[in-house]
Amino acid sequence: MSQQGENKPKFRVEFVERTGLKRLEESHGYAHLLMPLAGNENHVGVLYMGAYTVLAEAVAALPGISFLDAALYFPILKDIYVDFHKPAASDVTAEYRLSEDEVAGLLADLERKGSAGYIAEFPMHDAGGVHVATGRVTVKLLSHGWKK
Question: If you ran DSSP here, which 8-state letter would residue 43 be given?
Answer without folding.
Answer: T
